[in-house]
Amino acid sequence: MENESVVYKKLSDYKCEKYNGSNKTSLDIKLSSAVNFGKIDEVGELLACGANPKKEDASYGTILHKAAAQKSLNVVMLLAQAGANLNAVDKNGKTPVEVAKDQKIKEYLENAAKAKKEEENNRKAFEWYPSGSAPSLYPTELFFGDFIFSNGARLYIPKSIPFAADWGQSSGAMHILEDNE
Question: For tag attachment on the chain, is the N or C end more exposed, with fewer CB atoms within 10 Å?
């Protein structure tokens, strides 16, 4: 394993360079291997290139389980920042925090799961009533994350997309009006 330093890197510190153009399957296989060997910088770059942080691992459950068991706090932190499921269970019904062998990793995973739960509980449903004049009067920018409708349904938005220009055109957002009569 790489020597872990006290200065932890954030996922935003990494750019997709070495693996640019690789297919998703190849990235996921390389990510699993990089996690297995605790290669922090390789994990960061693979995640920046689009490798799946929720990837399942036959031996461990998920790659987060593997990283937690491998005692690699930096790798655990990168996977968590990239959206790994902190509450995933392995074939024995254990979460990553339960398989973690290092106390710092356990504490980090517990705090990250608690923060995520608080964030979800504090999230309020958006009230959005589209109309024909909405784009010109109320330009909207949707950021990545969940758009929560008043009925509790969720729509995942993968990245920030500005709406207003070309509203309703094939190159922009679709704006569909329905009669409620």
Answer: C
